[in-house]
User: Fold these one by one.
Assistant:
Number 1:
Amino acid sequence: MMLIVKKFGGSSVATPEKIKAVADRVLRETSPEDKVVIVVSAMGDTTDELMNLANAISANRNTREMDMLLATGEQISIALLAMAFQAKGRDAISLTGPQAGIKTSDAHTKASILDICPARVEAELAKGRVVVVAGFQGIAHTNDITTLGRGGSDTTAVAIAGALNADVCEIFTDVDGVYSADPRVVPSARRMKEITYNEMLEMARLGAVVMQPRSVEMGKRYQVPIHVRSTFSSASGTIIREEYTMEEKEFIIRGVAQDNNVVKIAVLGVPDKPGIAYKVFSALAADHIAVDMIVQSIRNSDKKINDIVFTIAKPDLDQVKEIMAKIGQEIGVIGLEFDEDVAKVSAVGAGMFGNPGIAAEMFGALGDAGINIEVISTSEISISCLVRKDQAKDAVTAIHNRFFKQR
Ligand code: ASP
Ligand code: MG
């Protein structure tokens, strides 16, 4: 007997036929003794359509009502999927997020899961039923329905798997796993059989979009292996877990990520004296602006002035322009520059820690491709370079070719 959580995204349940196919597949891949929980998203583009409806009423919406609206999408798909199981002779029941015991913060439209009380889910499983749970939603201490942010069904699935101590959480999606680079950019990208939670989180932070990052954090917290695999085939995909178990240790670099959603900010000619960097970055922190790469360098040691360069996420740009205009005056800068034509390319891999040759290889790959590096930053398991945006694809390809030599 296994306890299995399977999550199917919106494209997997977009039509009644697809919903029936999901039920068929689940019945085929599990045995009647298994305890099976299915988490589903809203059918197809339902969530987008619901947002359009809200937009048509008002641009300035109350987030509580937004959640009330968005949560209906998943309520449709769970009922239909439970009916599909019943029609095939398997007992099943649908539960909303609140019914499944998913307790969240009250941050409407981007709530986080605080706790899961799975008593009802366990009781239904004990009756031999397939339990179909609505992804993306929960209930706050205020007794109001909340949603978990776009892509939140992944997080629901992993959290439930954790709370139930499931053997595995399978995420069915329209890609067949996690690749060493975006296959649309690098056709020779490899599908990874395994990747660690930390590497997956780092890939997501640096621009890879496979799963909602919170779901990976949830997997790490509860130590639930997450199997990312295709809805359209029965091939196995990528398992995200704490440690490797297989032969893939030979790859020090696990993936190359690209993020076009960055802006480079240059604060030019700031006085070279204590407290200046504090002034700049505490002002940004006070407004919850996430800053990524930071470089300070001496421009002119006689005149005692420095340049500070850093990157932010593009959606924060307007806010940062305002903050920097104010701070710039206060500390007396010579110039402020905002450059949107940049992209960040990164190599990620837990094995690079304490291995300086890896950074050298990456810079060499970019140099050989004639790509200029503007800013460099590193973490224990990643190296990132800021390059011109129109060279980002070439940069990803060059780095990938260097680390994943054809075998
Ligand atoms: N239906 C929600 C969305 O489209 C949640 C999900 O798909 O995971 O974002
Ligand atoms: Mg969706």
Note: The longest helix spans residues 63-87.
Number 2:
Amino acid sequence: MDISIVVPLFNEDESLPHLAEWIDRVMAAHGFIYEVIMVDDGSRDRSWAVIEQLRAANPAYKGIKFRRNYGKSAALNVGFGQAQGDVVITMDADLQDSPDEVPELYRMIKEEGYDLVSGWKKVRYDSKIAKNIPSKFFNWTTRRMSGIKLHDFNCGLKAYRNDVVKSIEVYGEMHRYIPVIAKWAGFSRIGEKVVQHRKREFGVTKFGMNRFVNGYLDLMSIMFMSKFGKQPMHFFGLIGSVSLLLGVVALVVVLCLKIAGRMALTNSVWFYLAMFFAVVGLMLFLAGFIGELVCRNSTTRNQYLIEKELL
Ligand code: UDP
Ligand code: MG
């Protein structure tokens, strides 16, 4: 199979028939062997009925329906698990992403050797205040922190080589950071393609402003996990040591003050600083040890992605 198109959707019944028709048209024009995996993320409208109809008309359509709304990341993750095509394309269901981009994305993966190609909505048709400006800021910070030179991390239209999607796990709200997760897993050939973006014709956006706050917390988690996920003591132990060292310095000052004059220890700010840094330092070491215990028991502690083997 050439292409798997994974479509996460939540209450998109009006868009789906148009999307399917468009995908079929593009696939037929290029003679691709394909499947479309529609992951219904707990829709409460007629989306699932539409998916059943599509399936009845064309067995290339596959559907998975969640019992409730788990979020876009969960939907993508389940779709990735099912995808059989050599190239896996993700696409929003709301017709904002154009299926016309698929052949070129496919070519970039197949011929230019990319692990992942991300769409770039260079010209966007969303509200300026709610989307465009916050997303510029979001992309800038993600670029700085991850070192990946993409303009549009959160674009729903992306293409992957099949083994990339089988090797990564997307959960929570992490779908915005799939390139970061992929890079961390060792897939560093990440490309970008300017894609057409269209106005949402039917329904409404499913993401509000809280996505920005959660987004940054997720980015911090990812960066932390990639650096220290397997050796938490290297993180907590380092700042714990700095704190203990500062505690010792403060203690020395306190002792000098004590020797020099006869003031009560508790009158000196250095006394409190010494206490503070000592307690914080010990707590950080404790956190580090607990982190190490958690890692030791994690089932993924010895899970590596092997690229090639000669056995
Ligand atoms: N989506 C989903 N689960 C959710 C929220 C969104 O599967 O909990 C899907 C949604 O149906 C659409 C895609 O994710 O296919 C992108 O969502 P949306 O268009 O609302 O985001 P926007 O384009 O406004 O950023
Ligand atoms: Mg959209």
Note: The chain has a mean pLDDT of 93.
Number 3:
Amino acid sequence: MLAEQTPLTALKGVGPSLAAKLAAIHLHTVQDLLFHLPLRYQDRTRISPIGHCRMGAELVLEGEVLTTELAFGRRRSMLCRIKDHSGIITLRFFHFSAAQKNALKPGTRIRCYGEVRAGKTGLELYHPEYQFVTEDQPLPNSTHLTPIYPATEGLQQTRLRTLIDQALSMLGDGETLVDWIPQQIREHLGFRSLTDSIRFLHHPPVQGATDTVLFRLAEGQHPAQKRLAFEELLSHRLCLRRLRDQAERLSAPQLGSRGTLTKQFLAGLPFKLTRAQQKVCGEISSDLSQGKPMLRLLQGDVGSGKTIVAAIAALQAVENGFQAAVMAPTEILAEQHYLNFSRWLEPLGLQVGWLSGKVKGSKREEQLHAFSKGGAQIVVGTHALFQESVTFAKLGLIVIDEQHRFGVHQRLALREKGATEHFIPHQLVMTATPIPRTLAMSAYADLDCSIIDELPPGRTAVNTLIIANTRRDEVIERIHHACAQGSQAYWVCTLIEESEALQCQAAEATAETLRAQLPDLAIGLIHGRMKPREKTLVMDAFKGGLLQLLVATTVIEVGVDVPNASLMVIENPERLGLAQLHQLRGRVGRGAIASHCLLLYQAPLSQTAKQRLTIMRDSNDGFLIAEKDLEIRGPGQVLGTQQTGLMSFRIADLSRDSGMLDEVKVQSESIQQNYPECVDPLIRRWLGDRELYGNV
Ligand code: ADP
Ligand code: MG
């Protein structure tokens, strides 16, 4: 019987309602259950003397009940005192029945397991698991560590353990669970068999060296874990590669490089493209002319000039009679692109369309008409562009800016947009959050990668200082001084709350205070809840130098470009990710004047926060910052919550297992070529029903 094909209802005790609970945590088949691995382990193989208990320890105790009584405090509880030859301890229960109390009679022997805590009566065992024992009854788990599984409401550890034990007993000698990593590769990598690894991880045997085994397991360094982590990473990569292959089998419009519009455009620019920009433009241009869909990730640090590259790509589509759509994650960034594209492209006789959720009524109708009839050759907007009501006459290229804000499944959905029977549009994805190589290899294995590794000439590195908010007055004096010298400044307010409303309130309050403290400065305010027109007015006033200080929420994080701004204060920087801080900081240092960024933190700082801000102070290199951020915070956070669907590995951990990725790449290619029959089962096993790949 194949574990992969056996539904959980085949197990004893699994009816429809339990099956539904299991399905909620993605457990459908016996195979899923076998891959539901413990989060951690407990050592219940020894009975500890009560007298040796220490705070925080989790252990098995055995003793004779002295008294059992109720205590009425803030919470009603049942206290049961037990004793062995070495001491006495109290067990404290918060949920209990009268029958339970009656059974815990003085003189009975019980064995219990729990965590030692400091309670009212001294050291206590809080809500332990317990059982009655007779003299000299052996421990049930004398041979292996006790697994603690990821559980969910209404699904207890004990329940999961019995089910998994049933599944393990079906394992037999390896026919139940097929090892989809071909033997040759397994041998090459020195892996033990899958069945062995699974058995081991559910029930690690205890042979003397418990502490070492526990330690390696806790660190994810045990060979059995590494083998499974490898298999998981391999499966993810195979899945992304398959997406890529599927896309490659489709055609895309062949957009030859004609150079009519692009030449004119370049000639009109006040600067020359950097060498790096030329290189990536070449890569993109060659992709577009292939007749196969381009799937390219363009990485470039803040200010490296990605927008121009996008415009040049868009022009190549237009030269061939196709439309290009440019999408940005926020209203403010989309608007900025819209303004830039209009300013650049309308002189060439092109029409640039605009759509966001806030464009309504007849304006919206007008725009939609221009998209669907082809009146607008270039269309800029937020994700509103990809709503159902939007259609394009002849969409040849999609540009997505700041990709890290969008999840992988969104990227896939976008590929569908603009697809016709005959072709799908080319896709260019741009990000200023430098993606560490390890992440790029896993999260973007379906994309080719171009990097702009050079900033336009004349940029000055931003000098970053870390300052406690007790020195706020000095900071305000500094702003005063900088503005008196003719330069401009940002004051960025951050809040932990996700609520945009609160962020905006905080920014409003800060602007009030600063206006009182700096009465001779012209101070503006910008936040996400303002009307687009109001935002434009404020931004224009700041750009035009009418405002000297701009108080903002993190809405200005991306895209905003005012070269004369040379000072930025970021309040509570400890609340933001490093990548986000780097983005914010990228708003200054765009002109010729020396720029400064003041990280005004709320004292005291935690050790990690201190470490992170120090990295910001010491480096202006987005890639280095991202690598460090990954080390400190883990991949889910670095890529943003949207990405958690992709990044939630069951066993693998990208920062811990990044050393495997090169081998994963090699072996995934080998499997695709030599063992194609293994690809599907691997993907199904590890990615199963997960929503992310639902539309694959
Ligand atoms: P990002 O990569 O962060 O999106 P932008 O495209 O916004 O960067 O470019 C930042 C600024 O640099 C813009 O004002 C842009 O006009 C300018 N810029 C772009 N390329 C060059 C270049 N080759 N030389 C000088 N300035 C450039
Ligand atoms: Mg940009």
Note: The pocket of adenosine-5'-diphosphate (ligand 1) is lined by residues 271, 273-274, 277, 300, 302-308, 432, 456, 561 (CB under 6 Å).
